[in-house]
Amino acid sequence: MDWYPLINSVRIALISTVIVFFLGVWLANAVVRAPRVVKGVLDVVLTLPLVLPPTVVGYLLLLLLGPKRPLGMLVAQLLNLKLTMVWYAAIFATVVVSFPLMYRTTRGAFESFDQTLADAALTLGHSERWVFWRVKMPSCAQGIMAGGVLAFARALGEYGATAMICGYTPGYTATVSTTVYQLWRTGDDAGALTWVLVNLAISAVVLLAMNLLESRSGRARGRGARA
């Protein structure tokens, strides 16, 4: 059995999750502190990929990164790199489709943060950066981790945008999702079912890990409240 689709899917999901994690935390923190009108506009723009069909996201990415588009041509001339129909092109697709999950979950965690804790730390002479990393982030860790897990799971199972920007080349751009479709399309039901079961198993492990993290976080808060 060729395990390349699984290796490629996990590689793409891990890279995109790291990007989405830091981007989501940064933008969620900025949006929470923004004026109401700006916050409303940014919230719509940043959440839009969540409601767009993945094929629409893929089409827009092709318009932006295609080899005959300005950005695609510029990168090709400067770096001799293609931005479409290569394995790493899926990172662009998975970042776009999984970002809203990270952003909205993290924004909700930041909105429920008790600002008096930050104010108290500031009055003790700590910098805003120190307060953010040592007070705000630990207090919101459960929501942030949940967003990261959801973003990873979404990236791992992404199909529509990935298929449009990467295509399907066995051993090069194939992912679990595109492999399932290609095997089904060619009548290989047994092969498609095998990869479906692999995907189900990974998704179940990811969700169990998220539940375990939430359970541990809840017990830690309980011990903190009793202390």
TrEMBL record:
Cellular location(s): Cell membrane
Topology with respect to the bilayer: Multi-pass membrane protein
Keyword Manganese (UniProt): no
TM region(s), chain numbering: 12-32, 44-65, 85-103, 144-170, 190-213
CDD domains in alphabetical order: TM_PBP2
Keyword Transmembrane set for record: yes
Residue stretches making up the ABC transmembrane type-1 domain: 6-214
Identification of the protein by name: Molybdenum transport system permease
Organism: Thermophilibacter immobilis
Gene, per the UniProt record: modB
